[in-house]
Amino acid sequence: MPIMTVIYALLLYGAAAVFVLGVSYRVITYARTPAPLKIPTMPAPVTRTGVAFRVAREVALFESLFKSSKWTWIFAVMFHLGLLLEVVRHLRYFIQPIWFWVVLVQPFGVYGGMVMVVGLLGLLGRRLLIARVRYISQPSDYLMLLLLLGIGLSGLAIKFLDHTDIVSLKAFVLGLLYFDWQPLPDSPLLLAHLSMVAALLIVFPFSKLLHAPGVFFSPTRNQVDDARERRHLAPWAAQLEGAGDEV
Amino acid sequence: MAKVDFKVPAVGEYLEIPDLQPGVMAKSAPFKAAPRHQQALGFPGELVENWEERAVAKLAELLSKYRSLRVHLDACVKCGSCADKCQYFLGTGDPKNMPVARQDLLRSIYRRHFTLAGKLFPRLVGARDLDASVLEEWYSYFHQCSQCRRCSVFCPYGIDTAEISMAAREILDEIGVGQKYCNEILGKVHTIGNNLGLPAPALANTLEGLEEDVKEDTGVDVRFPLDVQGAEVLLIPPSADFFAEPHIDGLIGYAKVFHQAGISWTLSSYASEAANFALFIGNYEQMRKVALRIRKAAIDLKVKRIVVGECGHAWRVAYSFWNTLAGPFDFLDPRYPVPQHIIEFTHELIERGAIKLDKEANDHMRVTFHDSCNVARATRMGARPGGQFVLPREVIKASCNHFFDMAPETIGEKTFCCGGGGGLLTDELLELRVKGALPRMQALREVQKEHGVTHMAAICAICKSQFSMVLPYYEFPMETIVSVHQLVSNAIQLGTNS
Ligand code: HEM
Ligand code: SF4
Ligand code: SF4
Ligand code: SF4
Known about the structure:
The structure holds two protein chains of two kinds. By secondary structure, chain A is mostly helical. Chain A has helices spanning about 5-30, 50-60, 65-70, 70-90, 100-130, 130-135, 140-160, 165-175, 190-205, 210-215, 220, 235-240. Chain B folds into two domains: about 45-175, Fumarate Reductase Iron-sulfur Protein, Chain B, domain 2 (Orthogonal Bundle), CATH 1.10.1060; about 190-490, no CATH class. In chain B, the strands form two sheets. Chain B has a four-stranded parallel beta sheet with strand order 2-1-3-4. A three-stranded parallel beta sheet of chain B has the order 5-6-7, sandwiched between helices. The two termini of chain B are about 45 Å apart. Bound molecules: protoporphyrin IX containing FE and iron/sulfur cluster (3 copies).
C-alpha cells in the first residue's frame, strides 16, 4: 500500500471522528442546557408546527438575513446552496449503486461549485471592503473563507484541469467505508483538496461553523409563543420554588 | 433643558449609517451602586478580590443555565447583519455599539476560557484574558445596550444581544460592580413595593388627589381604588403613572375605562409597580422575587383578573415570564388570559361597544405611535401573532381621527428603542440617551413633515420619560409624547351608558 494512501486514510478517519464526536458533543450540550425563560423573538408562532416552519424558513431561505441585508443574503445563498449541491454530488463517491436523485443532481453539481466560489468571493469582498464587517472580523473569519475557497477552487481545478481517475478515487473512498483500503490516485491537486476537507471537518466543532447546528437550538427562534397558556419551568428554576417564598 | 457638553446628532433627510468612530463612547458609564445597594440584593458590596476567577465561574454557571447564552456565544458567524441595526451604534458611531461587537466583549472571554480554539490560539479567534481594561469595557458598553432585541430580529440565528448583556451585568453584580440606578430601585421595590419608594399613605393621597382632579374636570366621580378586597381586577401600573407626565394622564384613562365599563378594580399598595428592573440586570431570582409580590397581592385582595398598565419591559416580564416565575395563576378567573394588558382590556370593551369614544375630542392632535420594543419583540397582545402592533393602533384610531404611522422600517418588529430602556434611564447617561434616540427622532421628523404629526403616543413608562427628556434636544416640544390611554381619556364619553 502506498504510504500516501495510508496517511490519507488515517487523516480522513481521524477528521471524520473529530467531526462526528465534536459536533455530537456540542449538540448534546445544547440540548441538555435548559432555556429557563420564554424568549422567542416576536411575533412568533403560537404552535409547534408554526415554529417548525419558522426554523425551516431560517434554514432553507435565511429569512432573517433577507430582512437584514440583501447583498449578504445573495452571497450567502450562493455559497450555501452551491455547497449543498456539491455535497450531494459528492455522494456518488460514497454509494454504489448511485441513488436515482443523486444522479439527477450531477449535472447541476458543477455549477454548484462555481456558484459556491462566487458566493465565497462576495462574502470575502464584503468582509474586506465594509469597515463595519472588517472591524468585527478575526483572523479565523478570513481563514475560514480562504479554506472554503481553497476547497472549492481545488475541486474545480481537479474537474477542469486535472481529470483525476474518478474510478479509482471511488474505489479508495468505498475502501475506506468498508475497511478494505484501495490505493489513492496520485494527484497533488486531489491531495490538497482532501487535506483541506479534512481540516474543515476537524475545525468544524470548534469554530463558528457551529452555526449550522446552532440555528436549530436558538431559543429566540425555536420557542412557541404560549407563555400565558402553558407554564414553562426549567429544572433548576423549579428548585427555587417553595424555598423561603412568602406565597 | 440642561446645557450639554456633547453634540446632538443632526437629523438629516434619511438615516445614515455612520462612519466608525472607535472609542467615542468609551467614557460613557452609569454610576456604580454603593455597597448598601449591592448588599440589599445579596451582591458583594464592592469589587471582590479574586474577581477574575469569580467572573469566569459565574460565566460557567450561566452557560449551564441558559441555552440562549451558550448557543448565541457559539453560533455567531460575524456576518455583520446586525451591525447597523442598533440605535446606539447609529446614534454614536462607536463600533463597540454594533451588536456583534458588543457580544464580542463577552465572547472573547468565553472563547479564552471555554473553547479549545481560544485556549490554544487566542489571537486567531479573538480570545483574550479578563483584566481590568476588559472589566471597564464591560461596564461601559453593556450599559449602552437597552436590551431592545432589535438586533435579534435581523440575525440569521436570532442571536439576542439582550441575553448577552443581561448575562454580563449579572456577572458584574456577582463580582461587586453593580449599577446604582437599577440596584437602588430594586431595593425599593423589595421593601416598599414600587420603584419610586412611594409608601402606602402617600400613594393613597395621590389617588385621592386624582379623584378630585377628575371630578373637577368632568363632574364625574371616577374612583381610584386602593387595596379593595374582592375587586374584579387588580391593576398593576408602572409607578411612574402615579406622578409623571404624560404617564398620569394614562392612569386617568385606565380609571375612566374601568368606571365606564362598570368593572370593579383596585390598585395594591403592596405591589404598586409593574416595572421589574431585575430583568435589566438579568437576575432570575430577583425577577422572581418582584413578580411574587404581585402574586401575593392578587391572592390577598381576592381578585379575579390581573391587568397590567402601559409599560414595555413590565409587559415583557408579565406576559412572557410571570407564569414561569410566579405561576400558576389557577386562583384567577380562567376565562381571561393571565395577565392581560390594559390595551387588550380596553380594546375588548371598545369592540363590544361597552365604552363610547368621541374621536373629535382629539381633533387637535395628529398622532403617530411608537412601538415600544419590549412590547413589539418580546410579547403579544390578543390571540394572534402581531396583535401587539394591531391592538394599540386600533385603540388609538378609535380615539382620534388623525393617525399616521412612521416609516415601516422603524415600527412593528423593526421598531427602534426610544434610547432609554434596559436600565439606562438615568441622568448620567444623557449623552447616550440623546444619541440613541436619533433613529426614532428621524422617523418622527419625517411624519411631522409629511403628515403634520403633532403627537407620538406610547405604551411604555420608560419610553414616555425618555422622550419627555430627549424630544427638546431635537427641537420637538416635550408635550409631543402622550400616553395611549390619555387619548382614550380625552375621548371617552363618561356617563353615557351607566
Ligand atoms: C443548517 C445549515 C446551515 C445554515 C442554515 C447556514 C446559514 C448561514 C447563514 C445565514 C450565514 C450568514 C451569511 C453569510 O455570512 O454567509 C452563514 C455563514 C457562513 N456559513 Fe453557514 N449555514 C449552514 C451550514 C454551513 C456549513 C455546513 C458550512 C461549512 C462547511 C457553512 C459555512 C459558513 C461560513 C464559513 C459562513 C461565514 C461566511 C462569511 O464569513 O461571511 N455553513 N451560514
Ligand atoms: S439589544 Fe438593542 S440596544 Fe442592545 S445591542 Fe441589540 S439593538 Fe443594540
Ligand atoms: S447578525 Fe448574528 S451572526 Fe451575524 S454578526 Fe450579528 S450576531 Fe453574528
Ligand atoms: S424604553 Fe421603550 S423603547 Fe426603550 S427598551 Fe423599553 S420599551 Fe423599548
